[in-house]
Amino acid sequence: MLAELGARIAGRRIELQLTQAAVAEQAGIAKRTLERMEAGQTSQLGTLVRVLRVLDAASGLDSLIPESGPRPMDLLKRKGKILQRASGQRAAKASGKSWSWDEKP
Asked: Is residue 46 predicted with pLDDT exceeding 80?
């Protein structure tokens, strides 16, 4: 995934006729950081956003994770309250016996 993203960044940069040095300077990062990003190595999210802004590609980030909202039936169940955090799924009891402390020494 990182290699594909790096290749797309490099392709977009070349399409815009920009050098790595020019993109790095406009993004406020080191040229070596951009080289690593284009090579598919890890980088920070903030760095990626900076580079995408320089390449006029930041608008695609909106579709990366669609904005979510409460479903109408969920609002009815919760009487209009919107969840503030996730509680996770409760683990189902595997054995059917109730849990207790082990009393062996």
From this structure: yes
Q: Work out the mean pLDDT of the chain and round it to a whole number.
A: 84
SS (H, E, C) the chain: CHHHHHHHHHHHHHHCCCCHHHHHHHHCCCHHHHHHHHCCCCCCHHHHHHHHHHCCCHHHHHHCCCCCCCCHHHHHHCCCCCCCCCCCCCCCCCCCCCCCCCCCC
Provide CB contacts within 8 A for 23, sequence distance 6+. Answer: 13, 34, 51, 54, 55
Would you state the pLDDT for residue 104?
67
CA distance 24 to 50: 9
| Residue 63 tokens, joined | 């579709």
CA distances from 57 to 32, 48, 54, 95, 96 (A): 21, 10, 8, 53, 54
**pLDDT exceeds 90 at position 87:** no
